[in-house]
Amino acid sequence: MSETERYQTHAPENLEERFAHRAAHMKPSEIRSLFAVASRPEIVSLAGGMPNLSAIPMDVMASLLEKLVRENGQEALQYGSGQGHPKLREQICDVMALEGIRANPDDVLVTTGSQQALDLISRIFIDPGDVVLVEAPSYVGALGTFAQYEARVVHVEMDQSGLSPEALRDAIKTLRYQGSRIKFIYLIPNYQNPTGVTMPSSRRTEILNICREEKIFVVEDNPYGLLGFDRPSPNAMRAEDSENVIYLGSFSKTIVPGFRVGWALVPPTLREKLVIASESSILCPSNFSQLAISSYLANQPWRDQIASFVNLYRVRRDAMLETLDATFPKSANWTRPKGGFYVWVTLPAGIDTKAMMPKAIVAKVAYVPGNAFYADGLACRCG
Ligand code: PMP
Fold first, then answer.
1. What's the CA gap between 344 and 371, in Å, rounded?
2. Is the pTM of this model over 0.90?
3. Which end of the chain is less congested by CB atoms within 10 angstroms, N or C?
4. pLDDT in tens, the chain (383 residues)
5. How many whole angstroms separate alpha carbon 345 and alpha carbon 136?
6. CA-based torsion, 208, 239, 279, 16: positive or negative
């Protein structure tokens, strides 16, 4: 009997009524349900952004961890500060300096992956029906979180340079006319998940200006910023605006995701609320994970390590684009990312990539159908 069947057999009849209203918005993500199929060894998986850990020196990692427990076990295995370990918060500021950010460690909250930061921000800002603006398409994990807090997610058009400022102005005007409350805009300016598109500096400035004028917070999610293939990414939006931008970072793509260490850099006025929200969900981020990352940053040539990750991802991007160039029809088009993990393909009109999925699996290829990256989940010829 499968897990689902067992649950269905034993679930009390009125369980749905016992759940809170918000539980109705908790749906499995398209990517998670693909996971089982995509991770079969015979399948070539283009689905899901799994960092490649082959460049991590596991023996070095093992000895750092052993040393951590032997020499600092009393601290590493104890509860810690709700806001995060002070030393790691300082090191995080050094990492952010690579993208032009000057930050005070007091304004950093360490989170359990940046996914937890998305949850906390949603918790402190979103009442049911509030609007969250996002790129079209946008990261499936963020859409899931916003949905659980019953936000009305409104997608704003993108072009090859990311979110369109004209479309943003229009959306704000229409929403305000309708009396909607816009709480924040969620953006992934570097090597966006899922399109791979990067927003140039001038576009960043334009969008920051609009959001400041309109009093809409910008949530800048930047897990891929250090994974540029040819040159560094443009400075972070937070580097230009420290008052209206909530910046999210993560070590998942630059070191390893297994420690689940990410962070939020917030304007000082928001810090206390976020720390309290985090303490109520996890008490404190794992001291063990934080000190492991901290020791890695202090003892390993992590910039070189990231460079070797980048080389590997560049080879993969090239292989993907060469194959698309060689095999796909002219009526299809796709993005040519300059960093990160993702390529976004748009197929000729009339093709539904979700309906095509079973055929792809028979041909031993998995991908994520584009509808997953839209809040309405409607049919899409992308993926
Ligand atoms: N934001 C984006 C855009 C992502 O792609 C991911 C992971 N795929 C996350 C946030 C969450 O990452 P983590 O919780 O591992 O830091």
1. 12
2. yes
3. N
4. 555 555 556 778 888 889 988 888 888 776 677 777 878 889 988 987 788 888 889 999 999 999 999 999 999 999 999 999 999 999 999 999 999 999 999 999 999 999 999 999 999 999 999 999 999 999 999 999 999 999 999 999 999 999 999 999 999 999 999 999 999 999 999 999 999 999 999 999 999 999 999 999 999 999 999 999 988 889 999 999 999 999 999 999 999 999 999 999 999 999 999 999 999 999 999 999 999 999 999 999 999 999 999 999 999 999 999 999 999 999 999 999 999 999 999 999 889 999 998 899 999 999 999 999 999 887 788 88
5. 14
6. positive
Q: Which residue is closest in CA terms to ligand 1's atom 13?
A: 113
Give residue 139 CA to ligand 1 midpoint distance, Å: 8
The position carrying tokens 């693909």 is 34
Count CB atoms within 10 A of the CB of residue 174: 11
Q: In a mutational test of the pocket of ligand 1, which residue from 193, 197, 290 has the highest number of ligand atoms less than 8 Å from its CB?
A: 193
- CA dihedral (25, 147, 266, 253) in degrees, to 10, reads 90
C-alpha 102/C-alpha 108 separation (Å) is 12
> Contact at 8 Å (CB) between 41 and 276?
no
Please list every protein residue whose CB sits less than 6 Å from any atom of ligand 1. Answer: 49, 113-115, 139, 141, 188, 193, 221, 223, 250, 252, 257, 262
Write down the number of H helices and E strands in the chain.
14, 13
From 114, 118, 261, give the residue whose CB has the most ligand 1 atoms within 8 Å, as the site to mutate.
Answer: 114
